């Protein structure tokens, strides 16, 4: 987590004037904290209140800053793409290229051995990087969709107050609740999968390879890994419980209108 984001979240947790809360929530969002659940916990309020606060500050919570997402750009680091099925062929091709560029050196000598070790570390690091990056990207996409659909539940519930085609609007609300439940479960699966792969460099060769990947324009993984939910199961259960509790209450409130409709 960046120092700036840490500071704005600390300010949000310590807010004392109610009229400043929306401003602090917007500042935390702009600084990169786009998890509605995390904002609600920091502000000691509910997710619907976070959505209202963001909208009051001119922020559409459906649109997140692009830099919060792990970009999936094709990997090609000295011919290594991170694709498991082609690793051996890519390794052999890299060795042949080295030999062609160094005809004066013996591929079986010390220099060839050192290059083989370097390429092996690069191949392994690229493959692990691709795996971790893809899992993180899938988690972030699922998290974005989860929050979007939870927000949609609130929007469709609010729309019932002024809907002319009330039954159709109520049906849309009921469908959005079901979609949000599915999105929560899908996010939990992606988050648990992402947490199964931690990132590490176990040797100087691995570290050099990782620096080479970043130098090629690919993002570092540490911040995204730090942002992973430490307990996806507990968070998913809490989100489902909150959603179901609100839906049960709203069903009771809508019952008289449904009766007359």
* Cα distance spanning the termini: 51 Å
- Unreliably modeled segments: none
> Which sheet architecture does the biggest sheet show?
none
Radius of gyration: 25 Å
The chain-level mean pLDDT equals 85
Q: Give the oligomeric state of the chains in this entry, treating copies of one chain as homo and distinct chains as hetero.
A: single chain
The tally of helices reads: 10
SSE sequence, one letter per element: HHHHHHHHHH
Structural class: mainly alpha
Q: Give the total of beta strands.
A: 0
Dominant shape: elongated
Content of β-strand? under 5%
Helix content, binned percent: over 70%
Using brief descriptors, characterize the structure shown:
261 residues, mainly alpha, single chain, 10 helices
Descriptive account of the structure:
- This protein is mainly alpha-helical.
- The chain is built from ten helices and no strands.
- The longest helix is centred in the middle third of the chain and has 50 residues, at 110-159.
- It starts with a helix and ends with a helix.
């Amino acid at each position: 987590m960046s120092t700036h984001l840490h500071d704005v979240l600390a300010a949000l947790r310590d807010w004392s004037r109610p009229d400043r809360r929306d401003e602090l929530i917007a500042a935390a969002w702009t600084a990169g904290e786009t998890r509605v659940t995390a904002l609600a916990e920091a502000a000691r309020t509910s997710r619907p209140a976070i959505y209202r606060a963001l909208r009051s500050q001119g922020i559409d919570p459906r649109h997140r800053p692009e830099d919060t997402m792990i970009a999936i750009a094709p990997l090609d680091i000295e011919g290594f793409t991170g694709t498991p099925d082609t690793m051996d062929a890519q390794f052999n091709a890299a060795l042949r290229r080295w030999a062609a560029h160094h005809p004066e050196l013996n591929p079986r000598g010390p220099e060839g051995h050192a290059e083989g070790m370097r390429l092996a570390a690069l191949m392994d690091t690229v493959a692990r990087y691709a795996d971790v990056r893809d899992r993180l990207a899938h988690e972030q996409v699922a998290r974005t969709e989860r929050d979007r659909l939870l927000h949609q539940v609130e929007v469709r519930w609010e729309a019932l107050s002024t809907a002319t085609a009330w039954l159709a609007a109520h049906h849309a609300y009921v469908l959005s609740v079901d979609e949000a439940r599915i999105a929560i479960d899908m996010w939990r699966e992606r988050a648990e999968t992402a947490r199964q792969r931690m990132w590490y460099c176990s040797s100087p060769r691995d570290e050099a390879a990782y620096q080479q990947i970043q130098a090629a324009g690919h993002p570092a993984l540490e911040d995204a890994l730090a942002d992973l939910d430490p307990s996806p199961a507990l968070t998913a259960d809490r989100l489902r419980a909150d959603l179901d509790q609100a839906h049960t209450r709203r069903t009771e409130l809508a019952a008289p209108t449904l009766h007359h409709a």
